Each structure stands twice: as C-alpha cells, then as structure tokens.
TrEMBL record:
Gene3D superfamilies: Bacterial Topoisomerase I, domain 1
Superkingdom of source: Bacteria
Coiled coil start-end: 230-257
Ranges where the NERD domain occurs: 49-168
Regions crossing the membrane: none
Organism of derivation: Dorea longicatena
MF terms (GO), sorted A to Z: DNA binding; DNA topoisomerase activity
Entry annotated with the keyword Magnesium: no
UniProt-recorded name of the protein: NERD domain-containing protein
Keyword field: Coiled coil
GO biological process: DNA topological change
Length: 323
C-alpha cells in the first residue's frame, strides 16, 4: 500500500435478509386475528430494532477512514448442519473482526463473573433480568467459522488454521443503542475489551490493529479473504424461515378453526331454521305441534319425517320429500 493512498471502505455485502423478513411480516399482518397480529407486531418491533442497530454500526464503519472490507449479515454453516449468523465481518490489513450487534433497550451491567444483567425502566419502576452472554454467542459463531475453514483441508493446513485463527480473528460485541449505558467496572479485562458501544467501535478496531504483530495484508489479499467468506454465505436463513413458517402455520390453523366455527354456525342456523319450521307445523288432525322424528324400523329406517306430538293418540305423519 502506498504511503499516500486514500483509505477505502468497501462494503462487499450489505444486509437484505432482515429487510426481506420484515416485508414478509408486514404482508402477513393484515391477514390474521388480533391474537396472532400482536405476535407479528412484536416480531416487527424486534426486527426493526435490529436493522436500526446494524445501520448505526454500518455508519461507523463507512466513516472509519481505514482500509477495510465489510460483509454484513453472513450466514455460515458447517457440513454437520451447525450455523452461525454473523452481523458483520470486517477484514482489515491485520485482523478480521466478527461483530455481534446488540440494539438492547435498557442499561447493561457486567459483573466480575461475566454475567450480563439488563435494567429496564418503566415509569418509576426498574426491572432487572439476566441475558445470555453475547460474548459466548459470538465466540460460538467464531468456532463454527473455524470449523468451516478446517473442512476439506489436509492435516498440515488444518494445523496452521488452528494455530493462527485466534491471532488473526477477534470477537467484538457492539451495543448499538446510543441510549444504552454500559457499566463494566467490575468486569474482567478480556470482557471489557470485547464489549463496547458503537461510538467506541472504530477507536477499538484501530487500537487492536495497531497493537497486532501479524504481517499486513495487501488490498488484493484483503479482497480475496473477504470473497472467501462471501462464497461460504448461505442466503436461505433457517432462523427467519422457521419463524415465518411458524407464523404462517398459526394463521392457517386459525383459518381452519374459523372455517369449522363457520360450519358450526351454519349447522346451528339450519337447526334453528328447522325448529322454527317445526313450530309453524300443526297437526291437521288434532291441532298439536308436528315434530321431527326418525324412523327406527322397517323399510324407511333412518329416514326423517314429521309426526304428531300427541303420538300415539294421534298417528298423523308428514313425510319429508327427498332432496
């Protein structure tokens, strides 16, 4: 790289799967009842928050004034079916960063044991809840990436990947909500280095790259490295597909139940109409009401007819014509 070359941020892939999922949810919304509609509305809020958080991070990366390749929303799967959805992969001249975006509502406390506790304020009350460690989540993603790199490699190449992986790759969890306060004063040093706010992202990346003793890559090598991740990316996202299918199944089930309810209503209406007819039918012999009966014996067994309420004193019968 020349001394006077201008730093380039190249976005090799921007997210689209979350936006497509959002569009599908918004199409489903008017097609269902209030109960399922509330589920879809909650899911829409979560997806929109995720998109907003990733947009904040993307803005920071685009304005980093560094040479880097950026891939957003990458899904990598191993041959045995384990998958990792990675919000951002950022390739710099020395280090590749795997970024987990968290657009959480509320403030985050990290204790000395690495536990994450979120505090949310509603009115005058504060609610605390433990949340799954985003560090653990992101490190599992990195392990899946490492496993995918080891696949179809010979023993020597595999040993090189294992030995150099953690020197060349770093995990970062970025809190993208600008209102979130991060309290990590009791957290261990390695936790503090991995969990940051969005406004600290570029400073952190520059610091890690500057401190790295790994050899620098050329822009061509950075591009090849970025493209290797892009080749592994799978567009059919299990997490989105499964959620969407679950919601559509609920809607179909609901429609089926509604059809049954309508059928019952129709039957009920027919029965009511039949009863009203019965109320209007009077026996011409004795003046009593005619009621619907079913023949139990003989050639007409199973057939319905109108008989006099005063049976057996009055044996008047009115047959029902076949439809």
């Amino acid at each position: 790289m020349g001394i006077f070359s201008k730093p380039e941020v190249i976005i090799l892939k921007e997210s689209n799967s979350a936006k497509k999922y959002l569009e599908l949810l918004e199409e489903l919304l008017p097609k269902t009842s209030e109960e399922i509609k509330s589920k879809i509305e909650k899911e829409i809020i979560i997806v929109k928050a995720g998109i907003a958080g990733e947009n904040n991070i993307l803005f920071e990366l685009k304005n980093s004034n560094m040479d880097m390749y950026v891939l957003q929303d990458i899904y990598i799967e191993t041959e045995d079916g384990r998958g990792a959805q990675i919000d951002f992969i950022v390739i710099t001249e020395k280090i590749t960063f795997f970024i987990e975006c968290k657009n959480l509502v509320g403030n985050i406390d990290v204790d000395s044991k690495g536990n994450f506790v979120r505090t949310v304020t509603y009115g005058r009350k504060k609610y605390k809840e433990g949340i799954y460690s985003p560090i653990t989540q992101n490190e599992r993603h990195m392990e899946i990436v490492k496993e995918s790199k080891l696949e179809n490699r010979n023993l020597l190449a595999g040993m090189i990947v294992k030995k150099s992986f953690h020197s060349l790759n770093r995990s970062l969890v970025v809190l993208a909500n600008p209102k979130t306060v991060l309290n990590d004063r009791y957290a261990k040093k390695e936790v503090k280095e991995k969990v940051i706010r969005a406004d600290q992202l570029i400073t952190t990346i520059k610091k890690i790259v500057a401190e790295s003793r790994m050899p620098s890559l050329s822009k061509k090598e950075m591009k090849e490295f970025a493209e290797s991740f892009l080749k592994k990316n799978q567009e059919n996202r299990k997490n989105y597909i499964e959620k969407y299918e679950e919601l559509t199944k609920e809607i179909e089930l609901e429609k089926g139940n509604t059809s049954k309810v309508e059928e019952l209503k129709d039957n009920s209406t027919e029965e009511s109409s039949l009863k009203e007819t019965e109320m209007r039918l009077i026996c011409p012999k004795c003046g009593k009401q005619l009621v619907l009966r079913t023949a139990r014996r003989g050639a007409n067994a199973g057939r319905q007819f109108y008989g006099c309420f005063n049976f057996p004193k009055c044996r008047f019968i009115m047959n029902i014509a076949d439809e």
